[in-house]
Amino acid sequence: MTTSQVITTAFLLISITLILFVSPSLFPNHHHPITSLFDFDDPEDLSLFRRASSPSSRKISHLSFPRPIPLPKVAFLFLTNSNLTFSPLWDRFFNSSPSPRLFNIYVHADPRCGFSDPLGHFHGRLIHSKPTERASPSLIAAARRLLATAILDDPFNFYFAVVSQHCIPLHSFDYMYGSLFGHPVSGPNPNPFRSNPLRDPSGFKSFIEVLSDEPNLHERYVARGDHVMLPEVPFNRFRVGSQFFILSKPHALTVIKDRKLWRKFRLPCLNNQLCYPEEHYFPTLLDMMDGDNCSGYTLTRVNWTGCYDGHPRVYQPEDVSADLVRSLRQSEGDFSYFFARKFAPDCLPLLMDLADDVIFRD
User: How many domains does the chain have?
Assistant: First the structure.
């Protein structure tokens, strides 16, 4: 080999090395484009999930168990990228019950939204939050963060209701509580766990929509690539549903313990028009893990009539009436709807006028 050939060969090798390592953007990954905004293996999140799912974090000592035995609680998990416009209505909802405090509130607000709470209803309940974005796994991560925080915060949180800034309550808290636990808040024996208070309510269902017959189910399944979900999620086990649900404690723990399916659903989508990870991950995971204890329907009413760009109908002030509230409650399931969305911010004064005489009068 001549000197010129050696020089040419060396030049080619150096050029190839520079192209591969200095300019990887010239060879994009067509299956999984890289997104830099979100870190889905955030060490803080992993630490939070480990602590929340460890047996020691959920154990209640017999010696320290308070007397009288507390009632189980409902954790309300607000997932928002804006201010909570309807916080006065929710505050009325939470304070409408004469019973002891049987709920906790947790808010995950996208830190980029400039969240404010001038009335002081929710600001003290903000959890450590990270950016969220539509059609990305960040909404799954945020919901998991809320669940883990609520589990760690209070061992008596037994139901976990994920709601948005556009949700409103359709019933009083006492009505919702009695429906969930099958016992009224007050009465001769209101505590469904009094006979064995240290156990989780494993017999209680989660209220989550689980659909397997959507017209575009296959397009949603392959939105990350034709074979990306295999082998963990075959097409016949893939499900879709609403991102707003009420989970029992065992199912909340299932969500934060999961690593296997999360590795699939956190992958970026190639077709964002049909890929809404938060509507896929939760129903698929829970149906695969414990479908018998999932209701198959959600308790949050959404009107998809005339939907646009994946968004449901937004109720305007002229729509708000007592008849609307009563109609939104009606369900084909075993339970009346507890919540409804979406409502425009201008609806708040009219909803407040209906609060005592209609919404919270069951």
Answer: 1
Q: Looking at 192-201, 228-237, 280-289, 346-355, which range is the least confident one?
A: 192-201
Angle between helix 249-257 and helix 43-53 axes, rounded to 10 deg? 140
Give the predicted TM-score (pTM) of the model: 0.84
With H, G, I as helix, E, B as strand and everything else as coil, classify residue 86.
Answer: coil
Does residue 155 sit within a domain? yes
**Can you give the residue range of the structural domain that contains 264?**
43-56+70-185+201-359
Q: What is the pLDDT of residues 102-141, one digit of tens each?
A: 999 999 999 999 888 766 777 778 999 999 998 889 999 9
Q: Spell out the alpha helix ranges (H) of 194-243.
A: 217-221
Using alpha carbons, select from 142, 73, 157, 145 the residue that is nearest to residue 110. 142
Quick check: is 32 in a domain?
no
Decide: helix, strand or coil at residue 185: coil
Residue 119, CB half-sphere, CA atoms under 13 Å: how many? 12
Q: Three-class SS of residue 300?
A: strand
